[in-house]
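We now fix the convention by which a protein and its fold are recorded. These numbers are not coordinates but entries in a learned vocabulary of local backbone shapes. A record is reproduced here so that you can trace the correspondence yourselves:
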Amino acid sequence: MAVNFGTRRIVVGAHYGLRDWLSQRITAGLMALFTFVVLAQVLFTRGELGYAGWAGIFAAQWMKVLTFVVIIALLYHVWVGVRDIWMDYVQSVAARLLLQVVSIAWLVGCAGWAIQVLWRL
């Protein structure tokens, strides 16, 4: 005999759980590692650190690839956070969809700009 304990609970909002939590931690760890690599590059660069010094740090192919991976990780990190905010605090489905589309467009634009700057060095 089944016992009914009341109405069925409706779960709303950003309920993606472990996958999003883990992706946020992994991307944050990757960005922290990148920060340490760039900091080490800056500290061990001899001479004045002007444009030529910064361009020299990012000129190596491995650094460009690492920076590209970190840009993608940053964009995914931001997307998960912003999407959760929209899902938790915007009740209107139409407004939430509009905000998500605008957020995606903004992030894609930022990605294009960052990659253009990176590969122009």
In short: Residues 61-89 form the longest helix (29 residues). The mean pLDDT is 87. The chain has four helices and no strands. The CA atoms of residues 39 and 80 lie 27 Å apart.
